[in-house]
Amino acid sequence: MYMPLTNQEVAAKLREVSKLMQLSGQNRFKVIAFDKAAQTLEGLGEDINNYIEERSLTDIKGIGKSIAEDIYALAETGSMPVLESFREKVPEGLIEWLDISGLGPKNAYKIHKELGISTIAELKEKLEDGSVAGLSGLGKKSAEKIMKSIEWKEKFDERCRLDQAKEIASVIYESLKDQEGVQQIEVAGSYRRGLETIGDIDILIAAEEEHISHLFEVFTTHERVTEILGKGDTKSSVRTAEGRQVDLRIVSPDEFPAALMYFTGSKEHNVVLRQRARDRGMSLNEYGLFKLNNDGDTDFDQAVAFSSEEDIYEKLDLHFVPPELREDRGEFEIYEKQEELSLVEADDIRGVIHAHSTYSDGKYSIREMAEACMERGYEYLGLTDHSKTAAYAGGLNVDEIKQQWEEVDALNKEFEEAGNNFVIFKGIESDILADGSLDYEDEILAGFDFVIASVHQSLEMPRNKMMERMRNAIKNPHTRILGHPTGRLLLRRDGSDLDLNELVALAAEYNTAIEINANPRRLDLDWRFGNKAKETGLMTSINPDAHTIAGIDDIEYGVRIARKGKYEKERVLNTMSADEVKDFFEDKGE
Ligand code: DGT
Ligand code: CA
Ligand code: CA
Ligand code: ZN
């Protein structure tokens, strides 16, 4: 009677409702309720269909009665009345307007209504002929700002990858950190939280007032800066040559911890922090922590002292929450009780698993890759060239495999004799064929130390077929790691349609790891499935999928994402010694 839904698809519908509501002038609280519900579902560790069948959606924190009804209606009829009615009210093109900075939903609605237009092209026309500037409450300045913003939007993507953000953030950070007067400096925002894509880069400095104008001068005249978007007393924004916005805020040293906390976000995390402050008779904002007066308002004369973020958390009865976890996805429950999770750190990584050599599409020989790993202090290399079906990537036939094994045996012998504490594991990145089987006969597969199973072709099969395929791959006794499970390419291509909660649980049951592919274009498995992974005890492996020597160092991005996914060191395969990894490879637990 109910149609099966996915958590992500319901979340997307709720998000659409919240956007459409904003564009039709609905009250803020309703908008927030839908947004919050969408966010809850995205992070939900259980299949939403179970809740629908038991009509128990309201048991989920963040889903109220009326939104629950909307979801039941969707499951019963395939459409959500509230969404349909807003879709009728709001023209499709208008949704894109929400992405224009400098044009809020209220003004968007006003322009649409009064000028009868709904596409960006029409908006540009009306900006050019002065109609928008003529509307009450808008004016020439706003119109120019909106126009500029549209031009940028057209020229550059809204977001960039973590590695691209790092490249920009680090040069600007370096140019500022040793300037006179800089007492503390930190890159905050989504970058500090290690999100896989970054909107703008937020830099925060603690300095006394006399240094502020000099610091802004250094910032806005940086060689990477192509445009100054705004320059005020405490904040300045610029655009870099890559089209990326960078905000610099300068605060007084005593405000720094509160400002850092605020501008690290996420917005959702901040909302909960502020509520916790209120519940304790205080008010938390970007300037600090203050007592509430008798009317329940912030009393700026009664500051509560603190000297670090950790201090502020403590005042809110919380242990320090690592920035990566500040997403309001269960971190409050954890850090209320627990001082810390033993989250994996970059230094914990002892070996490199998932790397390609010139045997398939890698750029370096096995020896070169192994030596690069040794130079970096790693203790093993899990070599995984492509399998035969991946012909476009030089996948290995059986003869080539045997040749590679000989070469690896010889290198391992050499390393041992030289007293290097280093071993190469013979692996393969086997294609998962359309029916879920792996790419070689069992006899060959059994000859490897381990198999990573990955999909490289037909990523767009229907969900049920794709799931069957993945289930088979996980259950295959040779599969020890599932590679880049969705195949997504960030900001370029969505991954396969999968119920990842189910796959996480299944992989955990079959004692098979799901990798966090550390290539910053992938970062797949997504950290949002970390709660399910933690609950089921899933093992991961932080794999660079290196095709070059430099690619090995992508591990750092994987570590950020693993931390975000709440993976403790113990659940990360390549934090183990070579012997322990060997045991894991050999024991599927059947
Ligand atoms: P992004 O830039 O889209 O990748 O994401 P964020 O998280 O860096 O967001 P951004 O740059 O708009 O703001 C930086 C932080 O400042 C954000 O994580 C939390 C805080 N913040 C900004 N605006 C608000 C707000 O309206 N309410 C609250 N509670 N916090 C805010
Ligand atoms: Ca930001
Ligand atoms: Ca910002
Ligand atoms: Zn692959």
Which features would summarize this protein structure in a list?
seven-stranded parallel β-sheet; binds 2'-deoxyguanosine-5'-triphosphate; DNA polymerase, domain 1; binds zinc ion; 15% strand; alpha/beta; 5 domains; single chain; 590 residues; five-stranded mixed β-sheet; binds calcium ion; Beta Polymerase, domain 2
Short characterization:
By secondary structure, the protein is α/β, with parallel strands linked by helices. The protein is built from 24 helices and 17 strands. Strands 11-12-13-14-15-16-17 form a seven-stranded parallel sheet. It has a five-stranded mixed sheet with strand order 2-4-7-6-5, with helices on both faces. A three-stranded antiparallel sheet has the order 8-9-10.
Topology (SSEs and partners):
Layout: H1 7-23, H2 28-42, H3 48-53, H4 65-77, H5 81-89, H6 94-97, H7 105-115, H8 120-128, H9 139-155, E1 160-161, H10 162-177, E2 184-187, H11 189-192, E3 197-198, E4 201-206, H12 212-220, E5 225-231, E6 235-240, E7 245-251, H13 256-264, H14 267-279, E8 282-285, E9 288-292, E10 298-304, H15 309-315, H16 331-337, E11 351-355, H17 366-375, E12 380-386, H18 398-417, E13 423-431, H19 442-447, E14 450-454, H20 463-475, E15 479-482, H21 500-509, E16 513-517, H22 530-536, E17 540-543, H23 555-564, H24 578-586
Parallel strand pairs: 4-7, 11-12, 12-13, 13-14, 14-15, 15-16, 16-17
Antiparallel strand pairs: 1-3, 2-4, 5-6, 6-7, 8-9, 9-10
The structure holds 2'-deoxyguanosine-5'-triphosphate, calcium ion (2 copies) and zinc ion.
Zinc ion binds at residues 429, 454, 456, 483-484.
